[in-house]
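Dear colleagues,

As part of the handover before I leave the project, I'm documenting each prediction I ran so the next person doesn't have to rerun anything. This entry is a single chain, and its sequence is reproduced below.
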Amino acid sequence: MSRPGRKLSLLALLVAAYTLLVPMPAYAYIDPATTSYIIQIISGLVISLSVGIGVFFRRVQMSLVTGRARLAALWVRLTARKARRASADAASLATTVGTASSRLASGASSPDAAPVNPTANPSANPTPAPTAATPAQPHRQRKTLRRQNLEAMQAAAAEQARLARQTPRPLRQRLAAAFADDRRFSQRLLPAALISAAAAFTLFFFGPLDLYLGNQTYFPYNFLDIIGWVGLMFGVAWVGALVVLMLFRGRVFDYLLSIGFGVLLIVYLQGNLLNIELGELSGGDIDWVALRGQMAINLVICLGILAVPLLLRRFGQRIWRGAVLFVPALLISVQALALLTSVVSGDALEPAADKNLPFLSKEGLYEVAEEDNVFIFIVDSLDQRYLDELQATDPEFLSGQLDGFIEFDNNTSIYADTYPSVINMLTGARYEHEVPGPQFISRAWAESSFLPAMKAAGYTVKVFSDYHYVYIDASEMASSVDNIGEGVSTVNKGVALPHLAKLSCYRYLPLVLKPPFRMASTDFANDAYRVGQYIVYEDPEFYSGLKSERLSISETGGNLAVYHFNGVHEPYDLSEDVVRQKTATDRQTVTKAEFNILFEFMDQLRELGLYDSATIIITADHGVPSDGRDASWTHDLGEAVNPALLVKPAGSSGTALAVSHAPVSHDNLRAFVAAESGLDATDFGTSYLDVPANSTTARDYFFEIRHPVEGEMYIEQFSITGDAGDFSNWQLVRKLPLDYWY
């Protein structure tokens, strides 16, 4: 194939790769299974075929060039052999004739010689053995002699080796023999450089960047902000591994090189082919004990892969020498091409991917108004079941602090996840995943009238939530929110690089080594600095600032503040006094920690004399099925899910915690806030307080199925009537296609 032909083939396959695999960003939580493996397969085939075709035609060309010389050499050998045979036949004939003449002469001159009787018995007159060899005998004798010499040399070598094994040698001699090497430094450098480069490239360059490109809407920095630092991380890992390998020589060097080769094969195959479905990084723990069987099988497979280069080194050195050069170079090439394809085909380099956009700042985080305060605390994943458990084990914990509150135990959310639930709570916008997420977010804020109406009524509106869940460009919220800041986003290199390396290791290491590298997507929240940015996921940071800075009266007019906490969300690692722990705590401890933050906030309101006049909502963006978030994404919903809801109307202090069974939902939140703030609530629906306990109004609920065992991804829409805690009251209305995750 000509060079232009190979280029056209390569271009065609790359176009196919663009069409088949455009990286699909995961929504809400980082998905470590995202991969560009199809592109790598296509790239590997193209490169391998190109190399193979090139080698084939090169050999054909060399064969044609040298064919004439080879034929001439063959002719010379044939003619020389014919001349040697003719010479040997002539010499043999002369020898035979001379021998016969001598025999005749000897027989005639001897008086005792008996006459020859040609008719006599041959056994009685045996023919004397010839004194000269036949023409074929010298060749056979030489072959026999060579074989005997070779066998003798092999036997001597075997005996010498046996004696050497039986004779104990000093450790110094054994080490010297193991490190003995007649190869030049450059001969060892090339395979060592390729093996170490391929392993470091996979783990610390391609892996982090490929994961970033597959989940880039989640990360708080741009691709160009991190690629240079990831390249530096790769360079350090490469040089470190190379230096270690080059410290050794001889057999030890070969064994270490083979082990490095095996590790390269393991991480590549594990990350692309051998991983099981471990779900997105929602923070939930994985039951590794239940996976022991799969971990054992995976470990056996990995050990088998590790043994392959060692066996090749022992029994097929020619193949081994070629493999340690070709395979690493191939893997680097296919991954580099896949990475380039993902960058070009995606929007990593587009201005729209720039994270240096206006954002929700923490301006006014601890500031309240002298009157007319409305506080909405969205405690992520606070399920009604968690409140029931807490009240069953510690009945006084909540009732002693929630003065004037009403507990609505028949509450539902509209959506099953943070996105788009928080946006829906604040805007009322509905989303059926029919358009890309950023498009829905822009539309929701542009069409909403709730928060703009609060601002028009003289309220300062502040939303303390995070990028990605509630907004992409906070300037789209300018008509709704006051705490919009501007500033340059800077990568927090000391945090971001270890996180990316850890995430890559979680993807590429064997199952038995994965548990220490398990992360939560919230771990990446502080990977970039932004001037004045409030990071919602650091609940301990908020609590510490609340206690040190304390609430102050500085807002004019009314004050509406929305606080979105990480909440009762896995991993459970908070103590009751809101301190992050290195070891796991439990769900009830974290629930108490979240309420201790709220109790401290309300105590400071009491100190300022603002508690009674304040309107307070404590709720969750969504509930959690009993089998956990990750498990719920893999199968249809089979149980009731109820987010907690605690409401304190203004002026209700001095009354004990009450319970209401009224069937309410997130759709009643905006009307309740409007009514409490003096606005016409009918523009926003029905308030919590106006829903009758026996209401039969149906409530909608959308449940996403993202990783089904069978079938396509879809959304289940339920209609809930009556007690939401009874799943028999949940009617499946329809299943919708999940066209866009985000």
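The two ends are 45 Å apart (CA to CA). DSSP finds 19 helices and 18 strands in the chain.

All the best with the project,
I.
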